[in-house]
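Reproducibility note. Readers wishing to regenerate the assembly model reported in the main text can use the exact inputs given here. Chain order matters: entities are listed in the order in which they were concatenated for prediction.
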Amino acid sequence: MLATADLDALFLTFKVASISTILMLLFGTPLAWWLARTTCPWKGFINAIVALPLVLPPTVLGFYLLVFMGPVGLIGELTTWVGLGTLPFTFAGLVVASVLYSMPFVVQPLQAAFTSIGEHPLEAAATLRASPLDTFFSVVIPLAKPGFLTATILGFTHTVGEFGVVLMIGGNIPDKTRVVSVQIYNHVEALEYNEAHWLAGCLLLFSFTVLLILYTVLKTQPNVQQLK
Amino acid sequence: MTQPIIACFKLDYGNFILNIDLQLPGTGITVLFGHSGSGKTTLLRCIAGLQHAQQGFLEINGKVWQDSELNLFLPTHKRPLGYVFQEANLFPHLTVAGNLQFGLKRIAKKPGTIDLQHILELLGIENLLKRMPDRLSGGERQRVAIARALALNPEILLMDEPLASLDFKRKQEILPFLSRLHQALNIPVLYVTHSQQEVAQLADTLVILEGGKAFASGPLSETLSRLDVPLAQNWDASTVWPVSLIEHETDYHLTRVAFDGGILSLPMIDAAIGTLLRVQIYARDVSIALEAPTATSILNVLPATITGLTDDRGGQSVVRLKVGTQSLLAHITHKSAVLLNLNLGLVVYVQIKGTSILN
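Running the prediction on these inputs yields the following structure tokens for the assembly.
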């Protein structure tokens, strides 16, 4: 059965994933919109940066975050200066890392959805007196709904499944940074295979169910990476 | 609205340059005619503000929408226009009613329910309101798109080849609606097409575009009959006269119509006295005689003055004539032109063998 520590880890995991997903949608939507529409020469550069976590070992990302957010890092000095202290080994640090790590899973489906809308509905809206912002909310978001669903689900599940980045930046602090994947690792290290089974089974069931919904009910193409 | 439309645009795409300086009437349908690549759609998009010409001046209904010298460019959503796209371009996530409401929600001066009902009836879409766009036929979709644009009480209606994506049957389904609009609307309509049939059926004013420039522009029959316009040389060259129905000759199954310069007899038309009609006369159906023929089976013989003459060096001559205030084209053989010694200013008689009614 699941022990209290396991339940705490589960709860923490979903808390991190929920907050990260909301933040990713908030930042990822304008970013994806910009990437889908811009003709700026920096587009390729930004696309590459956003997609980087897809190919980078999580430990590498975690390592750099640890360095930059640490007491002598650029971000660390900034957060200390504004009175937040340093972010590594805190819940906030975990969220920041998760957002960066899972961002491509939100940006890429959104970017693909925005691109596929094309110019025509936007022009029609403009001739019907809708300002660009108005058009975004009344036309783009409804038409990109499948993209938003995919982005939300992938962003959330990918955050739930992270391990390397968490270990580097969050460590293994109960109730603060000890998420399910780390807890499973702890169990296995302590040879508590029974407990590991329960938690691993929960994650397996959760992930499979979500993907099943994604590919059957929402009929999403099993293709996340649309690297262009 | 009677104030003229002033449109000047310079746009350089490298391989295509639009260079337009036009003054168009503030009433009726002005057709922008040209082959693909002539710049007709680009011109319409510049007028709508969907395309931003680096240099431009645009005045509609006495208001300036663009003046690049003053750095003035009204964005599309602030221009009181209606736009009908080539593909109806309805919002797929909204019902027909939702599509019609989209613009209405965003304007201050709303049309009355009677006006709205009138538009729905005019376009025959009252029964489609609850449907989603993907459940409509191509013709229905285009009619909804026209209604959606008209519902906003626009000061100008811009139509970009609204029939081009439809098959022949659907075109025939919509054309009567457009002709009806023509009479019901008091705003100017700019209509882009590459179809001569639509030009003949709808245009009051014709602008012929070629290579990004306005090659010719003016009243329909005037422009159609210009000898320097390639249209006049085509085997299906024609002119179109506005006429009004004056009398039915039931015994002969004929209808008589009057125009600026005389009377024509046409095959019987099922319409009331006083109805305004458009008569198309093909150049190949017009022959020329020096004296009034006394014994001829042709009913429509009219005095005319030769105002233009060209020889295509292929044995055919194109003669431009004035009948009253209307212009007319005649395709005759070069030999006939020489034998009859046709010259500019000569008064002759034209015999019109056939006519067709366009609406």
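We highlight two features of this model. Chain B touches chain A at residues 48-50, 75-78, 81-83, 85, 87, 89-93, 102-103, 106-107, 148-149, 152 (CB under 8 Å). Chain B has two domains: 5-224, 238-357.
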